[in-house]
Batch of 2 targets.
Target 1
Amino acid sequence: MTSPGFAPEWLALREPADAAARSVGLADLARDRVLNRDPVVVRDLGCGTGSMGRWLSARLGGAQHWVLHDRDPRLLAVAGAAVTGPGVTTRTAEGDLSALRAADLAGTSLVTASALLDVLTREQVNGLAAACVGAGVPALLTLSVAGRVELDPADPLDARFQDAFNDHQRRSGLLGPDAARAAEEAFADLGAHVETRPSPWRLGPAHAALTAEWLRGWVGAAVEQDPALAADAPGYLRRRSTGGLRVVVHHTDLLAFPS
């Protein structure tokens, strides 16, 4: 389920912003749901290099076994060695999780994912919800893009690039910025209790490298979606790269657990 564009270098660059953005409140609620499990067994879907495991394992505390799922063996090799801590063990599982079923989650205490829902289709999100609810397993699903970006100072072309990027995220039936709402509906329709929290990136001068890389990718995807923007893109990037740009990239975290 991990996009081929999720290179290890990009994941490493964004990890501090991800860690600062995720909802600690929802993580604490998830921890409370699994306190009596020994060990806690966490399945991290589309784990990438293990960012979610590094962030959440310290908050869960106690004995934990993480099953790290991804279809990219490069990322799994990094994650398997990097999710560590007192009482934490791991194993990796390579493969596509689009056909996940409740039976596959037997013995699981918690399902997690980070920046995953928006690269799934509605059918895949419905299947994930059905698997979790069918197995009676809570799911903590973080950092789904919300389709809204705030740039300061503003530029007259901001809205056009944002709209084109959002349309690009929805290509080939993917949910993109509609993912969090679709997941909330899917879990709720199955009787699960669902809570959401905002989890925005807040990027300023201290995040210059991440901001620059994000901006190039954001503009590039927008131009790919709407070639009419190609003529304006170089000037837009120049204006945005002169320093002092602050960006808020909105995301949503979601916690669902069977009632």
Note: The first helix runs from residue 8 to 21.
Target 2
Amino acid sequence: MIQRIQSLYLLLVVLITTLGAYFLSLWVTEAGEEVFALDRSYVGLALLLSCIMAFSTIFLYKDRKLQFVMNRLNIILNFILLGFFVYWSLIIPGEMQISEKGIGMFLPIISIVLLVMANKAIKKDEALVKSVDRLR
């Protein structure tokens, strides 16, 4: 249900990963050419998978445990993607191929923060439901 706060967090993850892949560059080459996430097929595929997972998790509001697990898998996927970005920025020598790093490298960090906040809200909902069941 969209009125739950975790659904809004997940919707923000979907918007950030899709729009960020198109509009935020990962880096600028020494020739002045901007490299976007969709230019690298595996990065684009990982962002698309993250987006699909977050969007499908919105509709799992009746099964909070599965929603929590799907968010955890999405967090792991974003950590792997972040690892690729850190690897590229540290291993590739400074001015040889990458002239300027772009804001697009922070997409997984923003997604991870929003997914953790969604998991915290899911856990709070689960505790609320358990406390109500205990009173019956």
Note: The CA atoms of residues 2 and 14 lie 13 Å apart.
